Amino acid sequence: MAEHKTPALAVDGLSAGYDGPDVLHGISLTVPKGQIVTVVGPNGHGKSTLLRTISGLTRLRQGRILAEGREIQKLRPHQVAAAGIAHVPQGDLLFPEMTVYENLLMGAYTTPVAETVEKRLDFVYGLLPRLKERHGQIASSLSGGERRMVGIGRGLMAGGDVMMIDEPSLGLAPLVIEQIYEVIGQLRAEGRTILLVEENPARVAHLSDVMHLLDDGRIVWSGAPQDLLEREELLSTYLGG
Questions:
Q1: How far, in Å, CA of 231 to CA of 226, rounded?
Q2: At a CB cut-off of 8 Å and minimum separation 6, what does 45 contact?
Q3: Extents of the domains making up the chain
Q4: How far apart are CA 85 and CA 155, in angstroms?
Q5: Do the beta carbons of residue 156 and residue 124 sit within 8 Å?
Q6: SS3 assignment, position 180
Q7: How far apart are CA 82 and CA 78, in angstroms?
Q8: Contact call for residues 165 and 155 (beta carbons, < 8 A)
Q9: Which residues contact 80 (CB under 8 A, 6 or more apart)?
Protein backbone atom coordinates (compact mmCIF):
# COMPACT_ATOMS: atom_id res chain seq x y z
CA MET A 1 0.00 0.00 0.00
CA ALA A 2 1.45 3.38 -1.00
CA GLU A 3 2.39 5.72 1.81
CA HIS A 4 0.03 8.67 2.14
CA LYS A 5 1.85 11.98 2.13
CA THR A 6 0.22 15.09 3.51
CA PRO A 7 0.42 17.89 0.92
CA ALA A 8 2.22 21.09 1.82
CA LEU A 9 -0.95 23.03 0.98
CA ALA A 10 -4.52 22.03 0.17
CA VAL A 11 -7.81 23.81 -0.38
CA ASP A 12 -11.07 21.91 -0.16
CA GLY A 13 -14.38 23.27 -1.43
CA LEU A 14 -13.19 26.87 -1.22
CA SER A 15 -15.68 29.62 -2.03
CA ALA A 16 -14.76 33.26 -1.45
CA GLY A 17 -15.50 36.79 -2.53
CA TYR A 18 -15.60 40.44 -1.67
CA ASP A 19 -18.75 42.52 -1.01
CA GLY A 20 -20.87 41.03 -3.80
CA PRO A 21 -21.39 37.47 -5.11
CA ASP A 22 -18.76 34.78 -4.72
CA VAL A 23 -15.71 35.09 -6.97
CA LEU A 24 -14.53 31.52 -6.31
CA HIS A 25 -16.87 28.53 -6.34
CA GLY A 26 -15.92 25.24 -4.69
CA ILE A 27 -12.19 25.24 -5.51
CA SER A 28 -10.28 22.11 -4.49
CA LEU A 29 -6.60 21.48 -5.21
CA THR A 30 -3.46 20.21 -3.52
CA VAL A 31 0.16 21.32 -3.68
CA PRO A 32 2.48 18.39 -2.88
CA LYS A 33 5.80 19.09 -1.23
CA GLY A 34 8.58 19.93 -3.65
CA GLN A 35 6.28 20.49 -6.62
CA ILE A 36 5.15 23.49 -8.65
CA VAL A 37 1.40 23.60 -9.12
CA THR A 38 0.22 26.26 -11.56
CA VAL A 39 -3.19 27.89 -11.88
CA VAL A 40 -3.79 29.39 -15.31
CA GLY A 41 -6.75 31.19 -16.79
CA PRO A 42 -7.96 34.49 -18.21
CA ASN A 43 -7.46 37.68 -16.23
CA GLY A 44 -10.25 38.69 -13.89
CA HIS A 45 -11.56 35.17 -13.29
CA GLY A 46 -10.33 34.55 -9.75
CA LYS A 47 -6.67 33.51 -9.85
CA SER A 48 -5.40 36.33 -7.62
CA THR A 49 -8.45 36.00 -5.37
CA LEU A 50 -7.49 32.37 -4.77
CA LEU A 51 -4.05 33.35 -3.45
CA ARG A 52 -5.49 36.25 -1.45
CA THR A 53 -8.01 33.91 0.18
CA ILE A 54 -5.33 31.41 1.15
CA SER A 55 -3.32 34.30 2.64
CA GLY A 56 -6.30 35.48 4.68
CA LEU A 57 -6.63 38.76 2.77
CA THR A 58 -9.98 37.89 1.16
CA ARG A 59 -12.91 36.47 3.10
CA LEU A 60 -13.46 32.73 2.88
CA ARG A 61 -17.16 31.92 2.73
CA GLN A 62 -16.98 28.16 2.56
CA GLY A 63 -14.41 25.38 2.59
CA ARG A 64 -11.10 24.57 4.24
CA ILE A 65 -7.47 25.60 3.75
CA LEU A 66 -4.82 23.26 5.13
CA ALA A 67 -1.08 23.73 5.58
CA GLU A 68 0.65 20.41 6.29
CA GLY A 69 -2.77 19.03 7.22
CA ARG A 70 -3.53 21.82 9.72
CA GLU A 71 -6.57 24.00 9.07
CA ILE A 72 -5.57 27.66 8.68
CA GLN A 73 -8.68 29.27 7.17
CA LYS A 74 -9.49 31.12 10.38
CA LEU A 75 -6.03 32.64 10.76
CA ARG A 76 -5.21 36.30 10.14
CA PRO A 77 -2.73 37.14 7.34
CA HIS A 78 0.32 37.45 9.63
CA GLN A 79 -0.57 34.11 11.21
CA VAL A 80 -0.84 32.47 7.78
CA ALA A 81 2.64 33.79 6.98
CA ALA A 82 3.92 32.44 10.30
CA ALA A 83 2.35 29.07 9.40
CA GLY A 84 4.71 28.85 6.43
CA ILE A 85 2.75 30.32 3.52
CA ALA A 86 4.66 33.11 1.74
CA HIS A 87 2.72 35.26 -0.74
CA VAL A 88 4.41 37.18 -3.56
CA PRO A 89 1.51 39.35 -4.80
CA GLN A 90 0.84 40.59 -8.29
CA GLY A 91 2.85 43.78 -8.81
CA ASP A 92 4.91 42.90 -5.69
CA LEU A 93 3.56 45.77 -3.50
CA LEU A 94 7.00 46.84 -2.29
CA PHE A 95 7.62 49.61 0.23
CA PRO A 96 8.68 52.22 -2.35
CA GLU A 97 10.73 54.50 -0.08
CA MET A 98 12.61 51.64 1.58
CA THR A 99 15.83 50.20 0.20
CA VAL A 100 16.10 46.77 -1.37
CA TYR A 101 17.72 45.51 1.83
CA GLU A 102 14.95 46.94 4.02
CA ASN A 103 12.25 45.44 1.81
CA LEU A 104 13.92 42.04 2.05
CA LEU A 105 14.10 42.29 5.84
CA MET A 106 10.37 43.00 5.94
CA GLY A 107 9.85 39.50 4.56
CA ALA A 108 11.52 38.04 7.64
CA TYR A 109 9.51 39.99 10.22
CA THR A 110 8.14 36.78 11.77
CA THR A 111 11.67 35.36 12.20
CA PRO A 112 13.19 36.41 15.53
CA VAL A 113 16.62 34.77 15.15
CA ALA A 114 19.12 37.14 13.54
CA GLU A 115 21.43 34.32 12.42
CA THR A 116 18.56 32.69 10.51
CA VAL A 117 17.70 35.99 8.83
CA GLU A 118 21.31 36.45 7.73
CA LYS A 119 21.42 32.93 6.25
CA ARG A 120 18.26 33.61 4.28
CA LEU A 121 19.66 36.92 3.10
CA ASP A 122 22.84 35.21 1.90
CA PHE A 123 20.70 32.68 0.01
CA VAL A 124 18.60 35.42 -1.64
CA TYR A 125 21.69 37.40 -2.65
CA GLY A 126 23.25 34.22 -4.06
CA LEU A 127 20.12 33.41 -6.06
CA LEU A 128 19.51 37.01 -7.11
CA PRO A 129 22.92 38.73 -7.29
CA ARG A 130 21.35 41.84 -8.84
CA LEU A 131 19.67 42.50 -5.49
CA LYS A 132 23.01 42.43 -3.71
CA GLU A 133 24.27 45.03 -6.19
CA ARG A 134 21.17 47.14 -5.49
CA HIS A 135 20.88 46.47 -1.75
CA GLY A 136 21.07 50.17 -0.78
CA GLN A 137 18.90 51.45 -3.63
CA ILE A 138 15.40 52.82 -3.02
CA ALA A 139 12.77 50.41 -4.32
CA SER A 140 10.86 53.04 -6.29
CA SER A 141 13.94 53.62 -8.48
CA LEU A 142 14.24 49.98 -9.58
CA SER A 143 13.22 48.60 -12.95
CA GLY A 144 10.11 46.44 -13.23
CA GLY A 145 12.15 43.25 -13.38
CA GLU A 146 14.24 44.25 -10.38
CA ARG A 147 11.11 45.01 -8.36
CA ARG A 148 9.74 41.59 -9.24
CA MET A 149 12.99 40.03 -8.05
CA VAL A 150 12.73 41.93 -4.76
CA GLY A 151 9.20 40.56 -4.37
CA ILE A 152 10.43 37.00 -4.88
CA GLY A 153 13.38 37.62 -2.56
CA ARG A 154 11.08 38.99 0.14
CA GLY A 155 8.95 35.85 -0.16
CA LEU A 156 12.06 33.70 0.29
CA MET A 157 13.05 35.73 3.35
CA ALA A 158 9.85 34.59 5.03
CA GLY A 159 11.31 31.08 5.05
CA GLY A 160 7.93 29.49 4.41
CA ASP A 161 7.19 25.94 3.35
CA VAL A 162 5.12 27.16 0.39
CA MET A 163 5.62 30.16 -1.90
CA MET A 164 2.58 31.51 -3.72
CA ILE A 165 3.67 33.66 -6.66
CA ASP A 166 1.07 35.72 -8.50
CA GLU A 167 1.77 36.39 -12.21
CA PRO A 168 5.52 37.10 -11.94
CA SER A 169 5.72 37.94 -15.65
CA LEU A 170 2.96 40.55 -15.67
CA GLY A 171 3.95 43.73 -17.52
CA LEU A 172 7.57 42.73 -18.09
CA ALA A 173 9.62 42.64 -21.29
CA PRO A 174 10.21 39.15 -22.80
CA LEU A 175 13.90 39.07 -21.82
CA VAL A 176 13.08 39.97 -18.21
CA ILE A 177 10.29 37.37 -18.13
CA GLU A 178 12.86 34.77 -19.15
CA GLN A 179 15.15 35.87 -16.30
CA ILE A 180 12.32 35.69 -13.75
CA TYR A 181 11.39 32.18 -14.80
CA GLU A 182 15.02 31.11 -14.71
CA VAL A 183 14.94 32.07 -11.03
CA ILE A 184 11.76 30.04 -10.49
CA GLY A 185 13.44 27.15 -12.27
CA GLN A 186 16.32 27.37 -9.80
CA LEU A 187 13.85 27.29 -6.94
CA ARG A 188 12.28 24.18 -8.45
CA ALA A 189 15.71 22.55 -8.66
CA GLU A 190 16.16 23.29 -4.95
CA GLY A 191 12.96 21.41 -4.16
CA ARG A 192 10.85 24.44 -3.26
CA THR A 193 7.08 24.06 -3.08
CA ILE A 194 5.33 26.69 -5.20
CA LEU A 195 1.73 27.58 -6.07
CA LEU A 196 2.10 29.70 -9.18
CA VAL A 197 -0.47 31.86 -10.97
CA GLU A 198 0.08 32.65 -14.65
CA GLU A 199 -2.09 33.62 -17.61
CA ASN A 200 0.02 31.91 -20.29
CA PRO A 201 0.33 28.10 -19.82
CA ALA A 202 3.03 27.73 -22.48
CA ARG A 203 5.32 30.00 -20.47
CA VAL A 204 5.32 27.72 -17.41
CA ALA A 205 4.56 24.24 -18.75
CA HIS A 206 8.21 23.16 -18.47
CA LEU A 207 8.30 24.18 -14.80
CA SER A 208 4.95 22.84 -13.61
CA ASP A 209 4.10 19.40 -12.27
CA VAL A 210 0.34 19.94 -12.38
CA MET A 211 -1.78 22.62 -14.02
CA HIS A 212 -5.30 23.78 -13.19
CA LEU A 213 -7.37 25.87 -15.58
CA LEU A 214 -9.54 28.39 -13.72
CA ASP A 215 -12.44 30.12 -15.43
CA ASP A 216 -15.19 32.21 -13.86
CA GLY A 217 -14.05 31.15 -10.40
CA ARG A 218 -14.21 27.41 -11.12
CA ILE A 219 -11.59 24.82 -12.02
CA VAL A 220 -12.65 23.55 -15.44
CA TRP A 221 -9.66 21.32 -16.17
CA SER A 222 -6.74 19.75 -14.26
CA GLY A 223 -3.86 17.62 -15.42
CA ALA A 224 -0.35 17.48 -16.82
CA PRO A 225 0.83 20.76 -18.40
CA GLN A 226 1.68 19.17 -21.74
CA ASP A 227 -1.82 17.69 -21.94
CA LEU A 228 -3.30 21.17 -21.67
CA LEU A 229 -1.02 22.52 -24.39
CA GLU A 230 -2.29 19.77 -26.69
CA ARG A 231 -5.95 20.55 -25.99
CA GLU A 232 -6.53 23.18 -28.64
CA GLU A 233 -10.25 23.43 -27.93
CA LEU A 234 -9.60 24.28 -24.29
CA LEU A 235 -6.95 26.84 -25.13
CA SER A 236 -9.21 28.46 -27.70
CA THR A 237 -12.28 28.52 -25.46
CA TYR A 238 -10.69 29.77 -22.27
CA LEU A 239 -7.46 31.47 -23.27
CA GLY A 240 -8.12 32.73 -26.76
CA GLY A 241 -5.86 30.27 -28.57
A1: 9
A2: 214, 215, 216, 217
A3: 34-45+85-239
A4: 9
A5: yes
A6: helix
A7: 6
A8: yes
A9: 54, 55, 56, 67, 72
pLDDT digits 0-9 by tens, 85-103: 999 998 778 999 999 999 9
d(CA 101, CA 134): 8
| 237 neighbors 216 (Cβ within 8 angstroms) | no
| Per-residue confidence (pLDDT) for residue 240, from 0 to 100 | 74
Residue 1: per-residue pLDDT: 37
| CB-based burial, 46-67: b 16+ in 10 Å, e otherwise | bbbbbbbbbbbebebeebebbb
Q: Is the pTM of this model over 0.85?
A: yes
Q: Is-contact 164 195, C-beta < 8 A? A: yes
Q: What CATH number was assigned to the domain covering residues 34-45+85-239?
A: 3.40.50.300
